[in-house]
Amino acid sequence: MSKTILERLNSEDLRRSRSDKLLALYLERHLAELPFETARSIAAKVGVSPMTVGRFLRRAGFDGLEPLKQELRHARSNPAWQVKGEVDVLQADIREGKLLARLINQQIDNLRQVYEVTITPQWQACVDALIEASEVYVAAYQNIRGMADYMAAQLSYARPGVRYVDGLNGTYSEVLDGAVEGRLLFMIEVRRFASKALPLALEARKRGVKVVLLTDDFCSWAEEASDIALIIPGPHGPLWDGSATIMAVLDLLLSNTIVVLGAKVDQRVETLTRLQDIFGDFEKI
């Protein structure tokens, strides 16, 4: 969390009027939720006008809400696999059971926020896109690429035409080439952001491929680079970045998609099971 932002919000200059105090207190207590807010939503919750929110943010040194979100992202930024904290303190905490308790509580808090995402129009639009697309290509990078492989493999049980793309051919031609009508790129991308992610998303949209982006609240280009953006809480805990929140979202998306497809999934699973029996992939029960 940015100490500088908290210091600004606590300054006397930003707490002169009643509306100032209400806004300062709201922002101070809800910094973690700001990636999901707009000036209009904050105004409605605090009981002021969106123009009042804008004036307050300008006095705080931000030309709107987006620059504040960007500063929060930078303040939280660190490498994905960096241990965040003093090692001796963390070791003491884990011996006493405190560290794992904190991690569990963080995951629970993140899952509560994920539920809020599942009731948004973007969520339903994502499920519809996964069902209606003629082809679905799933992409991710570096240490989260396995999640894309998992998503593609699981979704392929529910519908045909699903592929995981790793970009090793250097062109992403399977996504970008030929007739792209009805084609969907489902991209999973969280910090640290891969250099290929934004160019691929922009090129796909340019060529007429619909882009669904599952990302976290550190991403500053989600709206620019996607048709549908699902933004989930980024990791803010004492250790390296985990995958529990992303995996929960993927499983919820899969479950939602399967329920909507209904009997079509049963027919496809029967077909795949028969093929698995032919090629002997599993032990006989």
Descriptive account of the structure:
- The protein is an alpha/beta fold and about 280 residues long.
- It folds into two domains: about 5-75, Winged helix-like DNA-binding domain superfamily/Winged helix DNA-binding domain (Arc Repressor Mutant, subunit A, Orthogonal Bundle); about 110-280, Rossmann fold, CATH 3.40.50.10490.
- The chain is about 55% helix and about 10% strand.
- It has helices spanning about 5-10, 20-30, 40-45, 50-60, 65-75, 85-95, 100-120, 120-130, 145-160, 175, 195-205, 220-225, 245-260, 265-280; strands at about 135-140, 160-165, 185-190, 210-215, 230.
- The protein has a five-stranded parallel beta sheet, with helices on both faces.
- Helix 9 (about 145-160) links the parallel strand 1 and strand 2.
